């Protein structure tokens, strides 16, 4: 049975996180609160309660919508000429909020954090590195770790590094020429606020291969993106560009050549330590028994994405909730609930592996991505097909 106290606690905690500037944590808590209010509305026995819970659920959804809202604004330069600028954020999360991923964190230190923290050592570089592409299956933490970089730099040095966190909807515009203006405004905003990170989530939305565009319109904003990335390097600005994609085959080849995005990092499913930490995190937010064996859960969830692990914990909660309602008790989640949820969860990354195999066979994956993707797919095949045979 859903609890008004739990729902309200999630709601108030979300508002506190919002005030602290931790948008990701706030959004997660608003989502949890919304789910609780949905259940409370379903269980309510009168119209007044149903409306109250529905209003609060809608309130949560509105906050989530605001957090995800487009981050550009129009301002006047004083001469009645309207300009576009983008919001620079300063997330509070750091590496301590990212489970596992030790090797990835070391790569990000070398490629992104050290150049931003120690510009005095730039003389050792033949030329400034301007960008990195993070690629891999969805739900494996690309966005989460990128948003932890400013907070990690602040924790280590006290220096504030902003991030312009962009979705495709923040950039694309139906009017011819407007998208190019938006791209230019993003880079201008970053240069005015250096040191700064520009993060293009789902970068294939604006960096799609020009050969796949049917109009000159699409080709023009890819050209603008390439031009502005090159200009950052030429002007030696403390601006770093990060792109994240689940569809590396869609990217324009010019984007991933040296001089634009110099590096590509595969974000694979979480390793054993990361899975163990994720189970501890998600189970810890629920009523649970003392028999939870986090090492066993991590061993049995190889190939699971972070999103899959979150789903397992949510499904285990539903199993325990049904039992508690049936027995009219407050039975906690136990190890068996989690094992049942794992058994009934199919790793979502396998769908991505299938798509990548098709791209490989068609020769559509650049070699910068292909080698590591092949290794990732091959390493999982034995586990995958054993599991699928068991399911059948």
Draw up the topology in text.
Layout: H1 4-20, H2 23-43, H3 47-67, E1 72-76, E2 82-86, H4 102-117, E3 131-135, H5 142-157, E4 162-166, H6 178-192, E5 196-201, H7 204-207, H8 216-234, E6 239-245, E7 263-266, H9 272-283, H10 294-300, H11 306-327, H12 335-343, H13 349-361, H14 367-391
Parallel strand pairs: 3-6, 3-7, 4-5, 5-6
Antiparallel strand pairs: 1-2
Helix pairs in contact: 1-2, 2-3, 4-5, 6-8, 9-10, 9-11, 11-12, 13-14
Task: Give an overview of the whole structure.
The structure is a single chain. With 392 residues, the protein is of the alpha/beta class. Helix content is 55%, strand content 9%. It folds into three domains: 1-69, de novo design (two linked rop proteins) (Up-down Bundle); 72-266, 3-Layer(aba) Sandwich (Rossmann fold); 349-391, no CATH class. The mean pLDDT is 83. It contains 14 helices and seven strands.
In short:
The chain has helices at residues 4-20, 23-43, 47-67, 102-117, 142-157, 178-192, 204-207, 216-234, 272-283, 294-300, 306-327, 335-343, 349-361, 367-391, and strands spanning 72-76, 82-86, 131-135, 162-166, 196-201, 239-245, 263-266. With 392 residues, it is α/β, with parallel strands linked by helices.
